[in-house]
Automatic annotation (TrEMBL):
Belongs to the Glu/Leu/Phe/Val dehydrogenases family. PROSITE patterns: GLFV_DEHYDROGENASE. One of its GO terms (biological process) is glutamate biosynthetic process. GO terms for molecular function: glutamate dehydrogenase (NADP+) activity; nucleotide binding. It comes from Alkalispirochaeta americana. CDD domains: NAD_bind_2_Glu_DH (cd05313). InterPro entries: Aminoacid_DH-like_N_sf, Glu/Leu/Phe/Val/Trp_DH, Glu/Leu/Phe/Val/Trp_DH_C, Glu/Leu/Phe/Val/Trp_DH_dimer, Glu/Leu/Phe/Val_DH_AS, Glu_DH, Glu_Leu_Phe_Val_DH, NAD(P)-bd_dom_sf. The record marks D165 as: Important for catalysis. This is Glutamate dehydrogenase. Homohexamer. Keywords: NAD, Nucleotide-binding, Oxidoreductase. Pfam families: ELFV_dehydrog, ELFV_dehydrog_N.
């Protein structure tokens, strides 16, 4: 058994129930296996054994009172996985499916994603099994306050800087920031994704979606093509999906689908800017369902289905993990889909990734393609530390540059390890090398 296989087997034996974490771990370890041939010092220094175990996991009770006066209790998490490259950084997810396995997979992925950004950011992630859907603003506020009362003990501008993820947008970040400020009596950049007036950065709301399209454009340009004129299937209809659509429209592409957990809509003429604005109001203010788009604009709604069966040249999974499986990959390949860029974290199953790459589809893994969000959070932290704000164009220019650098680092690592065009392998290796070197440099701690 090789070194990598023995570390993997040990984790599998210790945490057999952590399905999503093991899925993420297996993918990364499989990709980085060739690196250990060139770098025996990683094995000698026990880098992998240290990297697969989080530095710290905090699990806590979150009691709150609903509008009817009943006491509710949820579970809160923060997985502080690795701080070798900087303070822990990663979002908070509020969704009923949240559990330790999902927190660990997201936090583990964040280590390599943050490394790829080139910024000084460690990897962390957190959240709760609280479901904001159907809750009033006051209920969400009371939940956020209780969550932050406990979390505030473990975070800080030099320690751990949370942000948003599924179910955590500007409203939740506001309530979390307010409570952090009160508990710690400090106004610092300890959360990112803040509103502009109180410390946020221009482009942070747009950054993950814009970055995913920039990354897709880089992959296409590398193959002598462009996103312009391409029909694009997009899943989700939240933050990442909305701004993926906006950038696709800016670059002359034709987005044709959106989805939520109820199903997807297909608008074969292309979702226009006006219709996208309507979706933003539906989702961000009225908190409605995507089915209402079909009712409003007279297009087809497919309940309980995912959008990968429609004719498309490009696919942007922007909802959640494991939302694109082997069958879906087969459909995309048979329609001639050229590029899959992941706005979401681990949306594509392991078998589907294998099939896409084998079929020559340009596959941009989330840790590279959706790194624009956390990178712009890093830019928000820089602006907070300097007590100034950059213009929209300045931040967007930096985001564009960071995405280009991630593409280059990823493509170069893939070439170097004899797998040209395999951006999955390239992203895992390029992300891992920096973290591994930092772990060795800093001694056994
Ligand atoms: N926000 C960010 O900056 C970043 C986000 N990501 C990733 O992007 C993805 C989307 O996040 P974001 O847009 O912020 O979250 P939002 O909460 O804004 O939107 C999530 C969207 O995904 C859908 N969704 C969630 N869970 C499921 C499910 N189990 N099945 C089908 N659809 C589902 C939601 O539908 P419904 O409303 O019905 O639940 C909603 O349309 C996540 O994977 C996240 O980790 C990655 C990098 C940064
Ligand atoms: O902006 C951030 O810090 C976190 C973004 C995030 O959670 C992610 O990249 O998955």
């Amino acid at each position: 058994m090789s070194y990598v296989e023995s570390v993997l087997a040990d984790v599998q034996q210790r945490y057999p129930e952590q399905r999503e974490f093991l899925q993420a771990l297996e993918t990364v370890l499989h990709s980085i296996t060739p690196v250990f041939g060139d770098h025996p010092e990683y094995q000698e220094g026990g880098v992998l054994e240290r990297l697969v175990e989080p530095e710290r996991i905090i699990i806590f009770r979150v009691p709150w009172v609903d509008d009817a006066g009943n006491v509710q209790v949820n579970r809160g998490f923060r997985v502080q996985f690795c701080s070798a490259l900087g303070p822990y950084k990663g979002g908070l997810r509020f969704h009923p499916t949240v559990n330790l396995s999902i927190m660990k997979f997201l936090s583990f992925e964040q280590i390599f994603k943050n490394s790829l950004t080139g910024l000084q950011l460690g990897g962390g992630k957190g959240g709760s099994d609280f479901d904001p859907k159907g809750k009033t603003d006051n209920e969400v506020m009371r939940f956020c306050q209780s969550f932050m009362t406990e979390l505030s003990r473990y975070i800080g501008p030099q320690t751990d800087i949370p942000a948003g993820d599924i179910g955590v947008g500007a409203r939740e970040i506001g309530y979390l920031f307010g409570q952090y400020r009160k508990m710690r009596n400090e106004f610092t950049g300890t959360l990112t994704g803040k509103r502009l007036d109180w410390g946020g950065s221009l482009v942070r709301p747009e950054a993950t979606g814009y970055g995913a399209v920039y990354f897709a454009e880089e992959m296409l340009q590398g193959a002598g093509e462009s996103i312009e004129g391409k029909a694009c299937a997009v899943s989700g209809s939240g933050n990442v999906a909305q701004f993926t659509l906006q950038k696709l429209l800016d670059l002359g592409a034709k987005p044709v689908t959106l989805s939520d957990s109820g199903g997807f809509i297909y608008d074969p003429q292309g979702i226009s800017r006006e219709r996208l604005e309507w979706v933003m109001e539906l989702k961000n203010e009225k908190r409605g369902r995507i089915k209402e788009y079909a009712d409003e604009f007279g297009v087809e709604y497919y309940p309980g289905q995912r959008p990968w069966s429609v004719p498309c040249d490009a696919a942007f999974p922007c909802a959640t993990q494991n939302e694109l499986d082997k069958d879906d990959a087969g459909k995309l390949i048979s329609q001639g889909c050229k590029v899959v860029a992941e706005g979401a974290n681990m949306p594509t199953s392991t078998e589907a990734i294998r099939d896409l790459i084998a079929a020559g589809v340009l596959y941009g893994p989330g840790k590279a393609a959706n790194a624009g969000g956390v990178a712009t959070s890093g830019l928000e932290m820089s602006q907070n530390a300097m007590h100034l704000s950059w213009s929209f164009d300045e931040v967007d220019k930096r985001l564009r540059e960071i995405m280009r650098n991630i593409y280059r680092a990823t493509a170069e690592a893939a070439d170097r390890y004899n797998a040209p065009g395999n951006f999955e392998l390239g992203a895992n290796i390029a992300g891992f090398r920096k973290v591994a070197d930092a772990i060795l440099d800093q001694g056994v701690i």
